[in-house]
TrEMBL record:
<dbReference type="InterPro" id="IPR020843">
    <property type="entry name" value="ER"/>
</dbReference>
<feature type="domain" description="Enoyl reductase (ER)">
    <location>
        <begin position="21"/>
        <end position="338"/>
    </location>
</feature>
<protein>
    <recommendedName>
        <fullName>Enoyl reductase (ER) domain-containing protein</fullName>
    </recommendedName>
</protein>
<dbReference type="Pfam" id="PF16884">
    <property type="entry name" value="ADH_N_2"/>
</dbReference>
<dbReference type="Pfam" id="PF00107">
    <property type="entry name" value="ADH_zinc_N"/>
</dbReference>
<dbReference type="GO" id="GO:0016628">
    <property type="term" value="F:oxidoreductase activity, acting on the CH-CH group of donors, NAD or NADP as acceptor"/>
</dbReference>
<comment type="subunit">
    <text>Homodimer.</text>
</comment>
<dbReference type="InterPro" id="IPR011032">
    <property type="entry name" value="GroES-like_sf"/>
</dbReference>
<dbReference type="InterPro" id="IPR036291">
    <property type="entry name" value="NAD(P)-bd_dom_sf"/>
</dbReference>
<dbReference type="InterPro" id="IPR013149">
    <property type="entry name" value="ADH-like_C"/>
</dbReference>
<dbReference type="InterPro" id="IPR041694">
    <property type="entry name" value="ADH_N_2"/>
</dbReference>
<dbReference type="InterPro" id="IPR045010">
    <property type="entry name" value="MDR_fam"/>
</dbReference>
<keyword id="KW-0560">Oxidoreductase</keyword>
Length: 343
């Protein structure tokens, strides 16, 4: 089928601090528009790419994680939505829309197709939502809230980074479950979105609070039953002092520690003992057997207007480095997605 130009984003070298745009390189390479015979691989044209905090962990030289690091000089990879261009795999045909791990480039040859999933087009749901609401972040919210938090109607729920890709859905699911929900975010704009658009009972800007323990006591005078933690650090420490007996903490992310070479330790772990708190880390991949159930539930909620999803879209692969780096300063409002092509 011949060769074409292929825009790409590469990692220049391993990092030890918060990522910068200069840690990434944008270049134009070449792509062969074909698939090796008998390989069962697929060649895709990437349409949308997902920017996710876990990608920072893959930019450091650390091999003991659940997912290996990127290699210097290599194309970044992450969750994407793409159109199949060529295929040697009987499960995928040219023209199919798929979601799964792909390269940060215009065209990607995908050899490991086990986790690729066909996407059914629905004119009522934007295609890019398959990277957020109906993708990994949405499923993370669903599995974390229902399976890890074990919610009960009437409980008090706190969500950090609540306007992000995961937090915004956790809060709405908690409200639909009959819980009282407060979220934290890093700007007044985001606080307003939580309260006025996403239906949180209350919200606050953590950057304006000089005493997080006192702030949480103010918003939860009865204490917190469930904490959905996306940030770790000082916020988690403050929450532990405000938890109720029998509370649950779902550890989803530690974005406050992503720019720190020597992560900060916690100081209030004795609360786990005194208050019989269950704190559990999890990955959405632990619960993949629930994915069809998740899709049915969330699609129905969305079509009924019971949930809203906020997306922050940037145009062009050239914008991808800035979009990814912006996650770690809170520049994005909602789920950060890069549009590579709308074809």
């Amino acid at each position: 089928m011949g060769e074409v130009a292929n825009k790409q984003v590469l990692l220049r070298g391993f990092i030890t601090a918060s990522p910068r745009e200069t840690d990434l390189e944008f270049r134009v390479g070449r792509a062969e528009l074909g698939v090796p015979d008998g390989s069962k691989a697929v060649l895709v044209k990437n349409l949308y790419l997902s920017c996710d905090p876990y990608m920072r962990g893959r930019m450091r030289e650390y091999y003991n994680s659940y997912i290996p690091p990127f290699q210097p000089g290599s194309v970044l990879e992450g969750f994407g939505l793409a159109k199949v261009v060529a295929s040697e795999n009987p499960h995928f045909r040219p023209g199919d829309l798929v979601s799964g791990m792909t390269g940060w480039e215009e065209y990607s040859l995908i050899l490991k197709t086990e986790q690729l999933r066909k996407v059914q087009v629905d004119e009522k749901i934007p295609l890019s939502y398959h990277l957020g609401l109906l993708g990994m972040p949405g499923f993370t919210a669903y599995a974390g809230f229902y399976e890890v938090c074990s919610p009960k109607k009437g409980e008090f729920v706190f969500v950090s980074a609540a306007s992000g890709a995961v937090g915004q859905l956790v809060g709405q699911l908690a409200k639909l479950h009959g819980c009282y929900v407060v979220g934290s975010a890093g700007s007044q704009q985001k606080v307003d979105i939580l309260k006025n658009k996403l239906g949180f009972d209350d919200a606050f800007n953590y950057k304006e609070e000089v005493d997080l323990v006192a702030a949480l006591k103010r918003y939860f005078p009865q204490g917190i039953d469930i904490y959905f933690d996306n940030v770790g650090g000082a916020m988690l420490d403050a929450v532990l002092l405000n938890m109720r007996v029998g509370g649950r903490v779902a550890v989803c992310g530690v974005i406050s520690q992503h720019g720190i070479s020597d992560p900060e330790g916690l100081h209030n772990l004795s609360s786990l003992l005194f208050k019989r708190i269950r704190m559990q880390g999890f990955l959405q991949s632990d619960y993949l057997h629930l994915f069809p159930q998740f899709l049915d539930c969330i699609v129905e909620y969305y079509k009924q207007g019971k949930i809203i999803y906020i997306e922050d879209m940037t145009e062009g692969l050239e914008s991808a480095p800035a979009a990814l780096v912006g996650l770690f300063s809170g520049r994005n409002v909602g789920k950060q997605v890069v549009c590579v092509s709308r074809e």
